[in-house]
Amino acid sequence: MIRRTMILTTAAAACLLSGAASASYSEAFNGTNEGGWTWGFGDTFPAFGGNPGSYLQTAGLDTFAPMPRTTTAVNEFTGDYNALGVTSVGVDLKTDFAGSTGGRPCTLMLIHDNGTPGTPLDDTAAYFMGPNIPAAGAGWISYDYDVPSQEATLPTGWLLLNLGDSGAPPNHTWAQVIQDVNRVQFFYGDPTYFFIFQQWGLGMDNVRIETDAPVPGDVNGDGVVNFADILAIIGQWGFCPGCAGDLDGDNNVGFSDILIVIGNWS
């Protein structure tokens, strides 16, 4: 699922679920570049013309498909999305000029490097194709992608791609990718296609990520840890693989899980 909206403020995001560890981060390129975002050529940071203010610009980029992406190893946009409780990733984009933009989706790619950052041939990407990229002269367009980081299997609408060979089966599963995202990029098109090379003038602003990390010990999912969670554990008592009350992951709901609740009492 994809939403074309502007980012929530940190305060607004914190109100989404009372008691949950909600947060958001947005890189506006105002003297910073968290993640080391790059177009790959001709990066500049104009002070005006962004959405609003400064932004990351390229002019004269010659490529078949622009791929703005992170380059630093550890940053706000990478890591264990499942543990962080990532709920969405978004960006604002504009196209100043291009030979053709028609029919190209704007694709979010979450990439796992298999522990070998210098060897991209064994990378696997989980990707979601959203609405089309901005047409030339259309101004800024916001893209926000829902990221179901708590899903154990590949969510509806998401696909996996082996970047070393698009015709080969993916090297990793959704769970493996989402638990170790090493690079984030936006791909101008379907990443399984190849397009004609052309020159581009482009802008990027407000790259953002939102999280809503699960509260440890919150068995009933109400955002707080209290006696109600102990009652929920009692209701699931015994051998119960995959149950919310199995906090220690031993496939049994019992006293050890109650101790975890007590240790995280709100």
Total number of helical segments? 5
The helix fraction, in percent, is 10-25%
Top-tier CATH class of the largest domain: Mainly Beta
The radius of gyration over CA amounts to 21 Å
Please identify which CATH superfamily of the largest domain we are dealing with: Galactose-binding domain-like
Strand count: 12
The CATH architecture of the largest domain is: Sandwich
H-E string: EHEEHEEEEEHEEHEEH
Give the total of domains: 2
Give the CA-CA distance, first to last residue.
Answer: 33 Å
Overall shape: it is elongated
Unreliable residue stretches: 1-20
The percentage of residues in β strands lies in: 25-35%
Average pLDDT figure: 89
Describe what you observe in this structure.
- The model is unreliable at 1-20 (pLDDT under 50).
- The protein is elongated and about 65 Å long.
- It folds into two domains: 2-213, Galactose-binding domain-like (Jelly Rolls), CATH 2.60.120; 227-263, no CATH class.
- It has five helices and twelve strands.
- It is mostly beta strands and 266 residues long.
- The strands form three sheets. Strands 1, 2, 3, 4, 7 and 10 form a six-stranded antiparallel beta sheet that branches. The protein has a four-stranded antiparallel beta sheet with strand order 8-6-5-9. Strands 11-12 form a two-stranded antiparallel sheet.
- Helix content is 12%, strand content 31%.
